[in-house]
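F.,

This is the one I mentioned.
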């Protein structure tokens, strides 16, 4: 057991050392072979965290057996609470070894910080650990962490309810504004908000006459320091934790959305048709994700990268073919379909080579699911009626998340909309409804947690976005004609 854990820690450290600095053009990647091999089961992580918690708190309570027994019971209660909560609310996180390692690390280091900063309980940056939990794991889990950590801090400081109250106010403020975090400046502003909440809570407690004016002044400074300190800690640790624990935050997604990223740059230069298709798809997929409450930023960035595999042979894809002719003409339909299908494998390979995040690789891999390439299949049928349909199907996997399902539909809808001669809203509606129905009856959403209601909302969003897009285009063309320009 110890050997396995040592190996894991060593491999993680090696990976950390190898990691590109944040902001560099090349990002860390999806799963390497050795990464798949290593896995610390959640119970082991929980046991290690419990042990760390116990040692830290034992130093505080002393070696009196009644207190030690109380400590054991308290820690058991806290961890049972976490396990039960995770099991019933976020089971996928409980099964994720890396996520559990991260949670254990955040909880243990926050308790260690409380112990180190004993004597300045209001200055402890509890909100930093809560915000990190919210950004890297789950917002709901961050709320639970806020309650538990504020409680532990209160207990560690003579069962002081005032400390619990102040840190709950700061941490909850941090969690409340988490959705709006998109860059480093937002994190700095979040620090200000946490500091303001801490100061507000301290002033409220002062109204109960708990502190003298002198103590109040010191507490206000500590409360403000806790807020600013939390922002600094999050800013400093976030890039390393993201890399080390393979998490993808909105900040990371926005970095990937930057068109100076090498793969996106290549797309603009080497496959301009695919680049244009990805841009429009990103815009309509983002709207569709918003319509069902899915991660709209992931939908946008996933769309930017979904077809990067076409960079291997851009001329074999219709959006990049110009007057030079269609290279599929001399090929047999089976060969054509192989070339087209290969953009998934090539895309995944390119994404891994450029160390893109796993969530983006999933978008690349799943955006066609196991769909049939109708055009080449029907061409093949004309030549040989015995031909097997499987040869003309993408290898999958089928979409496994609502965002992947949205990308599949937005991709088809964008491509099909370009083939409509006069794209009136009625024709766009017919086309989108047909695509959604076909993908559904083809069983493309059987591995994805998406409802019929969601599919209806996605369809309506795609219809509205594409209708607006073509309406704006027609209006622009008419106004250009009216101006006598071309
Ligand atoms: Fe594609
Ligand atoms: Fe596409």
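My design for it:
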């Amino acid at each position: 057991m110890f050997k396995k854990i040592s190996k894991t820690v060593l491999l993680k450290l090696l990976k950390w050392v190898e990691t590109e600095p944040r902001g560099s053009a090349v990002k860390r990647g999806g799963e390497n072979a050795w990464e798949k091999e290593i896995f610390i089961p959640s119970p082991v992580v929980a046991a290690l965290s419990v042990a760390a918690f116990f040692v830290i708190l034992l130093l505080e309570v002393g070696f009196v057996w009644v207190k030690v027994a109380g400590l054991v019971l308290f820690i058991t209660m806290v961890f049972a609470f976490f396990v039960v909560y995770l099991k019933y609310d976020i089971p996928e996180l409980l099964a994720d070894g890396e996520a559990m390692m991260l949670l254990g690390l955040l909880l243990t280091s926050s308790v260690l910080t409380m112990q180190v900063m004993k004597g300045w309980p209001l200055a402890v940056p509890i909100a930093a650990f809560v915000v990190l939990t919210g950004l890297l794991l789950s917002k709901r889990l961050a709320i639970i962490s806020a309650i538990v950590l504020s409680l532990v801090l209160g207990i560690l400081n003579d069962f002081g309810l005032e400390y619990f109250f102040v840190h709950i106010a700061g941490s909850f403020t941090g969690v409340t504004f988490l959705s709006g975090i998109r860059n480093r400046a937002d994190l700095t502003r979040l620090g200000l908000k946490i500091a303001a909440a801490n100061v507000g809570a301290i002033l409220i407690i002062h109204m109960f006459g708990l502190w003298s004016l002198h103590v109040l002044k010191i507490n206000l400074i500590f409360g403000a320091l806790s807020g600013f300190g939390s922002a600094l800690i999050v800013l400093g640790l976030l890039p390393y934790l993201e890399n080390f624990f393979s998490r993808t935050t909105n900040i990371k997604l926005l970095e990937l959305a930057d068109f100076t990223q090498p793969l996106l740059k290549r797309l603009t230069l080497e496959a301009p048709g695919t680049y244009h298709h990805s841009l429009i798809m990103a815009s309509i997929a983002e709207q569709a994700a918003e319509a069902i409450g899915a991660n709209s930023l992931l939908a946008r960035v996933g769309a930017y990268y979904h077809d990067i595999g076409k960079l291997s042979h851009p001329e074999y894809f219709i959006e990049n073919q110009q007057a030079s002719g269609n290279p599929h003409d001399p090929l047999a339909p089976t060969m054509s379909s192989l070339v087209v299908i290969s953009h998934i494998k090539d895309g995944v390979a390119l994404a891994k080579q450029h160390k893109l995040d796993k969530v983006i690789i999933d978008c690349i891999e799943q955006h066609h699911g196991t769909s049939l390439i109708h055009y080449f299949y029907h061409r093949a049928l004309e030549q040989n009626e015995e031909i097997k349909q499987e040869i003309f199907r993408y290898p999958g996997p089928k979409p496994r998340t609502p965002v992947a399902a949205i990308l599949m539909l937005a991709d088809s809808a964008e491509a099909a909309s370009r083939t409509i001669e006069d794209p009136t809203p009625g024709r766009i509606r017919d086309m989108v409804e047909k695509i959604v129905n076909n993908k559904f009856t083809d069983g493309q959403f059987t591995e994805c947690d998406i409802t019929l209601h969601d599919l209806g909302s996605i369809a309506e969003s795609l219809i509205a976005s594409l209708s607006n897009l073509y309406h704006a285009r027609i209006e622009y063309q008419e106004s250009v004609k009216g101006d006598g320009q071309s």
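Residues 13-38, 482-486 have pLDDT under 50 and may be disordered.

Talk soon.
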